[in-house]
Design brief:
mainly alpha; 0% strand; 6 helices
Length: 95
């Protein structure tokens, strides 16, 4: 697993570290402003972690119905947090 600070520091690079999991790569691309690449990382993945990241991305996109579908797949409810706080929660959990 990735250390959170190492992950945060990697955001200054032009590409994500090769060893990142697809879910962390998704969050890396999201932080760099590339929603499409972030979505591509988790779009075909199974599992609750990927579903949570997928939900977050659709929430950020403004597609709340789709976000709620993915939150349900992640066995979570849409949080009342800001998008930034949810991103932090995801990084804390996945790193």
């Amino acid at each position: 697993m990735e250390n959170k600070q190492v992950f945060i520091n990697s955001l200054s690079a032009d590409s994500p570290p090769a060893h990142l999991s697809p879910t962390l790569k998704s969050l890396w691309y999201d932080a760099k402003g590339d929603w499409n690449q972030a979505h591509d990382q988790v779009d075909q993945l199974g599992g609750q972690d990927a579903a949570w990241v997928h939900a977050y991305l659709h929430r950020k996109e403004g597609d709340i119905w789709n976000a709620d579908y993915w939150y349900a797949r992640a066995k979570k409810t849409r949080p009342a947090l800001t998008l930034e706080a949810e991103w932090e929660s995801l990084v804390d959990y996945l790193a």
